[in-house]
Each structure stands twice: as structure tokens, then as C-alpha cells.
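User: I need a structural model of BED-type domain-containing protein from Gossypium darwinii for a docking pre-check later this week. Nothing fancy, just the predicted C-alpha cells so I can convert them on my end. Input:
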Amino acid sequence: MTMASSNTPIPVDDRFNEYESALKHQKSTTSKVWDEKTKLECENKNELKAQCNHCKSIFSAKSSSGTSHLRRHLNHCLKKINNDITQYTIATQPSLRGGPSIKNYKFNADECCRAISTFLMCGKHLFRIVEESGFRNMMRIASPNFKNISRFIAAMDVLMHYAKERDHVKEELAKAPCLNCLTSDNWNLEHTNDEYICITAHWIDKDWKLQKRSIRFRALFPLYDGLNIVDELVLCLYQWSIDKKIFSITLDNASYNDVMVSCLKNHQVRCCAHILNLIVKAGLELTDGVVGKIRNGITYIKSREFVGKDFMMWPTKVFI
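Assistant: Understood. Predicted C-alpha cells for BED-type domain-containing protein:
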């Protein structure tokens, strides 16, 4: 896609950059071995030590030494192996033949957090539900190894889940062998008078299956005109790296969409559902008088009990 005005690169800011930068910094400086090792303070600041949480052995923890030797120790630590064995439980799962099968099950905190994130998002629950006594009691009974989390940790897990899913969709869009079709719609919230925009991408994947994903859903800032909307659309396309892979854009007949399309060199498709809605409304305007009389008559009949009884008896009298 190309713009008629300017091709200046647009900075990407979807309000998760600060969170993701902190997350990447944490990942680059923290190894998983430190979940089972403890850093020890030494008199010599240049000399760092690490102690195993299982067997209490002490190792060098200099940055130049890396963490490979610590990981090797964890793989052969007898006390750690014994602890891992005690965490296994017997779980029954249905086999391919239909009968139950017995297999070892080990509690996985990461999978549990992902399941809670899915539970919060799909059920539209508040984050504070993870702090309620009923939820914590349920998780304690389901798995004694589960550690309670706060609403802030739950929110961070949801953001992390969103970031992973967004990156997965980005990969799918990049691998798509064809161009993408977009649909966009705006609507106004009556109580707050806020304007919202939703952009959906449609494409065919390598297996010739039609895919669609919502790639933008957010409130717009005033003024709600065509120029601001086109800025929002172009920013979305640059964020998803599909600015050069757009085939068409399906929009309704709003006047601001004409301004937006004039700024973009793409093929516009009018929304058939919106056109049919306008046709039906225009047809109903011709029958407003008749429909209004019928509605008033039904309201009159329902408002008076004796009139309703007489009305129900008339069909019997007429046909008899």
C-alpha cells in the first residue's frame, strides 16, 4: 500500500512497547537456573557465588563463567531428582481406544498461568477474581503446588499471552502467499460518546483455508474525521507489516470513509450488509403510516383487558 501524501516511516506504538522492553530485558539477563539457585554475597564484590537450593552446594557465579555449569549440576543433582519424582502424580486420561490410560503428571506452573489467562479472557472475568477466596480454594484443592497470584501478575500474564498470540498472527500474515483484504467499521458508544474502530484482516493461508483475525480494536481520539481514521489505519498496517500486502478495503457508506479512501491507493469495496440495511430502511419509510397504525392498535388492545377479550372473540364470531 502506498499513500498519496507522504512515505515517512511511522513509529510503532501499541502501548505494549514499555512492557515488552522490560520483559526482553528480564529475559536477556535472567536464566531459568536462578529459579533453583541462590546468589550469595561475598566480601569481594568481583567474586560471586551461587548455592543450589536442593543440595546446598556452592559454585562460582561470575558473569564470565556463564550458567552452563550450574545447569549441568541441576541435571545431575540427586536431591533435585528426588524432589521432581515426588511431584509426579498418577493421572487418568482417555486413550485412543476409548478406555482410561494411566500416565505420570507433573505440575507445570507456566501452563497453569496460561490456562488462567485463557480463563480470564474467554470468560471476561475481572483480574481480581484470582484474589478471591473461592478461586484460591478451588486451585488449592485442584493442585496443592499452585501458588496464589495477584491481580497484577494475572494482568501481566494476559499481556504476555496477547504478545505471543500477536507474534503468531504476524508470522501467519508474513507467510501468507496472497494479499490481504481488510474490513473496517466504526461505531459510537451512546453513554460516553466515544468512537471505536475495529479492523479485521482476511487472507488465505498456505493450505487454502480462509483466515480472519481482528488486528485493531481501540478507541479513537477526537476529531472523528477521515484524516484521523486513515492515520489509525496506516499505523495499524505498519505495525502488522502488511502495508504492502493489501488487496482491498471493505467499508460502509459513511462520508469520512470517502475521505479515507481518497488518501489511500487501494480498491474500496462497499459493504453489502450496510447497503441492504439502507435499502430496507428506505422501504420501511414508505410503510411507516400503515405500520404505525398497526402498532397503535396493538398497544390499545393490550392496554385494556375487556378490549382484548372482545378482540380474541371476534375471529370465532366471524367464522361461525
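Before docking, keep this in mind: Confidence is low (pLDDT under 50) at residues 1-13, 25-29.
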